[in-house]
């Protein structure tokens, strides 16, 4: 491609770092110098310049606008990330969350001034209980992993109440589980033992039954599992564990495939976290906002964490103390977060539920499964499906189709970027070599899926034809081309330093360590 004088390529605008745009003496605001006076910093006053760049307001706006155009988003295209359910977030939900009565709340307001907000939380909880068949819900967990923690701590509290905590020390975890499952169990003080999968990609029934015993506290089972397959033996496995005195934790990460069709209670679950940002279409990624409400069976409901939402004659209350909970016959295991959960996410999720209704949710889960099987059928003759038969909400392939080509799953994914598609989830689940996990979700149209399938088929045929050099160089059309991700992970450069010839003062450069590097 011919180089340009500006460094830009049409509307693909080359953009320096903010510090490289620094113009001394320029500022987007005009504030008077503060009057000198005493401080409350206790001798920790800054001795040199803070080192922030100076830019005009138009320069700042253009900088961040240009950077935003390099972001890939669900508003720009399909996210085929398996296990993540990256689906479109309806704008109506955002509008509801921004209503002044919701957006301007403060968690320390008197309860009598937030009765509407508490009613929203209660109604969301009612929907979640109805959809899962479990009688209680804790809304405070701030993410799926914290929801797991909530469920396992409730199980731990129930075992302590029964006097069995010292004897039931083992949590069984499916071999293909999300890594947070064994991590959560270990954080709760349990010993983790993996249960292998059978040839069908489901939890091995014989291995599970052989391990169930008086020392097992719980099993953590994702359904559909992380291979995108329905654990059809879940009710049978749950009965076996219940008969032995243990509990069933169902990882609800993949509820998007079941909602409106199968209830957690019918699968034998005692606890399950629900990712509102996956199943119920609230924002996902970027460090938040997350929400992982956890539904609990009757046996675990008394141990739900503080605060507990409670209805009295005078209205809704949040029970914030252990004494207040005990007075109502409850035994919370403690508190998970400082306040009451991600309220803005609750509003978005409830707006989605009310807009969809039970019939709409049922159709959405059906469409999610249909779309995934459409991709599985469209690619199975050129990619290597990991397991026989239909899938649920995501299609899993492995790297056997790349055998002897010299091309890896990572190379294949990089080539997808040149075609305008975000790569699918790679190398997960770990039980499948070179995994390509694809989840189209229900919000993608058939036209989008057809285009995706056509691109994937062409890439697979090119790989088999021996076009190794092109795959190793991909992506060629992305702003930074192919980066050395291993080097970046092992030696991250987190601060920018001015070039030696820039003339920056020692005070300005003292907080910077090393220059950023990129591959043009």
Automatic annotation (TrEMBL):
E.C. designation(s): 1.4.4.2
GO CC terms in record: cytosol; glycine cleavage complex
Molecular-function GO term, any one: glycine binding
Short name of one Pfam family: Aminotran_5
Bias-annotated ranges (Polar residues): 511-520
Stretches assigned to the Glycine dehydrogenase C-terminal domain: 365-459
Coiled-coil boundaries: none
Species in which this protein is naturally found: Pararhodospirillum oryzae
Superkingdom as given in the UniProt entry: Bacteria
UniProt protein name: glycine dehydrogenase (aminomethyl-transferring)
Listed InterPro entries: Aminotrans_V_dom (IPR000192), GDC-P_C (IPR049316), GDC_P (IPR020581), PyrdxlP-dep_Trfase (IPR015424), PyrdxlP-dep_Trfase_major (IPR015421), PyrdxlP-dep_Trfase_small (IPR015422)
Keywords, sorted A to Z: Oxidoreductase, Pyridoxal phosphate
Gene3D superfamilies for this protein: 6.20.440.10, Aspartate Aminotransferase, domain 1 (3.90.1150.10), Type I PLP-dependent aspartate aminotransferase-like (Major domain) (3.40.640.10)
